[in-house]
Amino acid sequence: HGPVVADATLAAAGAAIEEFEAAARLAIVLRGLPARRLSAEERAALARRFPACPAGRNRRRPRMLDRAARR
User: Fold this and answer.
1) What pTM, to 2 d.p., does this model score?
2) What is the CA radius of gyration of the chain?
3) DSSP state, 51?
4) CA angle at residue 14 from 53 to 8, to 5 degrees?
5) Are 38 and 46 in contact (CB under 8 A)?
6) How many angstroms separate the CA atoms of 62 and 19, rounded?
7) Inter-residue contact 35 to 50 (CB < 8 Å)
8) Measured over all CA atoms, what is the biggest interatomic distance in the chain, rounded to whole angstroms?
9) Residue pLDDT tens, the chain, 71 long
10) Phi and psi at residue 4, in whole multiples of 5°?
11) CA-CA distances (angstroms) from residue 48 to 15, 45, 52?
12) Is 45 helix (H, G, I), strand (E, B) or coil?
């Protein structure tokens, strides 16, 4: 068993599951420790360093969360 993701293309769904797994890994590693959000400057620096992942790309909520919120 595992998470189920969907997106417009197989590549986009693959990217979504990788992001989901990374977020889950962080949640486990942090175990409720305090965390801070990246500043706009830090996000921009990451976008320059990793151009395939532009800053703000993930601002939309995943579809699965939208459906869960409607319930």
Assistant:
1) 0.51
2) 14
3) T
4) 90
5) yes
6) 11
7) no
8) 39
9) 788 888 898 998 898 899 899 989 988 998 888 888 899 999 999 888 887 754 455 545 455 554 444 44
10) -120, 125
11) 19, 5, 9
12) helix
